[in-house]
Amino acid sequence: MGRSMGTDGEDVVIRPAIAADTIVLGRFGSLLISLHHELDQDRFFAATERTEASYAGWLERQLERQDVVVLVAEVEGTVAAYVYGAVEGPDYMALRGPAGVIHDLFVDQEHRRLGIGRLLLETMVGELEKRSAPRVVLSTAARNEAARRLFAAAGFRETMVEMARER
Q1: How far, in Å, CA of 108 to CA of 31, rounded?
Q2: Within a domain: residue 75?
Q3: In order along the chain (167 residues), what is the average pLDDT of each group of 10 residues?
């Protein structure tokens, strides 16, 4: 992985996540859930008082899997962001062949717009490609314009549109 420079000159270290990171990643996961819920309360469930601990525990178990990649970005020794992805086989429900799938990318509020998300995204793509992923896919909330701009600028193209209808 390694060191990089953020757009404001901060030293950013991208490294694999370890079990000790999952406490802060549980908080980030809860914030990610809340962000999605704020964007569309009908589509995305809300975080609860148990979300942080539940997500942290789940993510800690994911760290043991060979097909999973979890990376963190540290700024001045503090975990400021993370990305979670996996190499997956064919998915008939998604109508796609084997792929690296990026499931989560989150940058803490105070570290946004510094290039950290882009660094994490590019590092994750490289890690998934090293594991022989023939393509990398991800999804984001339709109303998450900042994420959509980031992904498009990184070379991702829209391939699917999810639609929802409530009762």
Answers
A1: 9
A2: yes
A3: 61 96 97 96 96 97 97 96 98 96 97 95 97 97 95 96 93
Phi, psi of 63 (to 5 degrees): -60, -20
* Domain-located, residue 162: no
Q: Provide the CATH number for the domain around residue 125.
A: 3.40.630.30
The structure's pTM equals: 0.93
User: Is 102 within 8 Å of 83 (Cβ atoms)?
Assistant: yes
Quick one: which of 93, 92, 89 has its CA closest to 67? 89
Task: Print the domain residue range for 63.
Answer: 2-153
Number of domains in the chain: 1
b or e along 34-52 (b: 16 or more beta carbons within 10 Å of the residue's beta carbon)?
Answer: ebbbeeeeeebeebeeebb
Neighbours of 122 (CB within 10 A): 14
